[in-house]
Automatic annotation (TrEMBL):
<keyword id="KW-0067">ATP-binding</keyword>
<dbReference type="Pfam" id="PF00005">
    <property type="entry name" value="ABC_tran"/>
</dbReference>
<dbReference type="InterPro" id="IPR003593">
    <property type="entry name" value="AAA+_ATPase"/>
</dbReference>
<keyword id="KW-0813">Transport</keyword>
<feature type="domain" description="ABC transporter">
    <location>
        <begin position="21"/>
        <end position="259"/>
    </location>
</feature>
<protein>
    <submittedName>
        <fullName>Phospholipid/cholesterol/gamma-HCH transport system ATP-binding protein</fullName>
    </submittedName>
</protein>
<dbReference type="InterPro" id="IPR027417">
    <property type="entry name" value="P-loop_NTPase"/>
</dbReference>
<dbReference type="InterPro" id="IPR017871">
    <property type="entry name" value="ABC_transporter-like_CS"/>
</dbReference>
<dbReference type="GO" id="GO:0016887">
    <property type="term" value="F:ATP hydrolysis activity"/>
</dbReference>
<dbReference type="GO" id="GO:0005524">
    <property type="term" value="F:ATP binding"/>
</dbReference>
<keyword id="KW-0547">Nucleotide-binding</keyword>
<dbReference type="InterPro" id="IPR003439">
    <property type="entry name" value="ABC_transporter-like_ATP-bd"/>
</dbReference>
Amino acid sequence: MIKEEKNTQTKSKDKKQTPIIEIKDLHKTFGKDNTILKGVNLTVNKGEDLVILGRSGSGKSVTIKCIVGLIEPDQGEISVFGENVLNLSKEELNKIRVKIGFLFQSGALYDSMSVRENLAFTLRAHRRDLNDEEVENEVADALESVGLADAIDKMPSELSGGMRKRIGLARTLILKPEIILYDEPTTGLDTITSKEISELILDIKHKQKTSSIIITHDMACAKMTADRIMVLKDGVIHAEGTYEELEKNEDEWVRSFFE
């Protein structure tokens, strides 16, 4: 009886929780007949790291790009911080975007700029109130948070793949986002570096209280970072649960990710 009452209380508490991201019935087709999303529904709660799994081309990256307006869906609703971003003006959407960090697969650094200049450029574009000394301090703090303070004057071409990921993350963190969208954060990295990036994702979550969606093929990363996992198949969410739950899922296709 006590156990049942506890479960009931937990469910009641969950119902009161307002998702920080909520996607309803999201559809997207490219060209005439390349349908990628066929009605995706998902939520991310405040302080949660949600991992999305799926085969290549299943629409994982398309989904998160729709959240920040990099891709416009054909149908559906995307609510971020309680606002439907698809109904916002460009100015209103930009205010939301400042609160959302997006880590691209490549890190997306400007090759002609030093690490210092990459981070300062991003900060000045959104924080015109800061003077040069304040910008320098923010850049130094962001690099310190990813363990690369010594790389401040390096050029992107001098950085390893793992370092580029960290610098890309520092550039994302410099705006102190409430949400971070990670697109394949460990792709192309060796096992040790991948683990370091996964640990960094967890560290950021705990220190900065971020909420995240993590797109990955790296099951070690998924196991380490996920509070909850969703699996995309044929344009919809096919399965959902914790790593341990999905690892034992009755669906052989779902279990294949965990073998």
